[in-house]
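User: quick one
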Amino acid sequence: MAQRYEIRFSGAGGQGLITAGIILAEAAAIIEGKHAVQSQSYGPEARGGASKSEVIIADDPIDYPKATLVNACLALTQEAADKYAHGIIDKGVLLIDCDLVKTAPQGNFTLYQLPIIRTAKEEIGREIVANVVALGAMVALTGIVSFESGEKAVLDRVPAAFRELNKKAYRVGFEKMKGIL
Amino acid sequence: MAQRYEIRFSGAGGQGLITAGIILAEAAAIIEGKHAVQSQSYGPEARGGASKSEVIIADDPIDYPKATLVNACLALTQEAADKYAHGIIDKGVLLIDCDLVKTAPQGNFTLYQLPIIRTAKEEIGREIVANVVALGAMVALTGIVSFESGEKAVLDRVPAAFRELNKKAYRVGFEKMKGIL
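Assistant: Done. Structure below.
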């Protein structure tokens, strides 16, 4: 693993991206024993519809938790892509929802596309788990935690009644991403 | 309001302190238009039972999101008080659950005590809303957002079926704190 790895989840408010960030941080820290900082930073733009959540993962203590250079970014909506898909390092990765982000940001990173919201709706049957589909895809894309650590962190965090739904969402997201890597 | 105000919520994992932090940040930023950063930092101690969540609120953009000097701290358990009730500024405030924190941390801050968990259990009927009782108390203690902004942020964030329960928990926490100020 790199010394420090930063992941940004962006989309619309209400899509559960803060939860996705928390689950990833807990997978890395509580399950895999790394250091992690999870944060959301709200400025004047917070009143708009776009939302973001950031996770920094490192082997050593993290002195400066603000995401400055992003290794991997997710954008579920066009507005989020326009606002938050920046600061990605050279050779970093950007995953967009290809149904909703029609104009992909340009940069010296590798662009990946999946129909994340549609997958949640049509294959899992609940749009509300799009965040966990996205989390599974980002775990597959980055390899920053193992499939199993991410799955355990999902199951530890979601209410008991929704465990099977979220477990399926996570696995489907992971497998869809693996299919295009 | 001070240039920069930092609040730390600490307790045990599963007590919903991350959610309390997110709600406070959303009250300050999305509702009141301030800048806010909400974060959780996980180190090797994350495997233990103690958990913390931090919020920084400011009128201007926040450059350095890591909480370094805490204006107001909450500790719901003895372990959290021992681990996380430090770095409080001179003349800052510390609120502890007086049933669970038997040995209060010492420092040049003002100590407040409320039976937060017991209030959630006995007056609201659900221990799970202890985080929102605590949030109401911290809003009353700090005045960092208005009662109404905090209440709206609670209602925006919790599932519809639990709105009345959380609204009551928030109000009771707020009023209990006002009663001892």
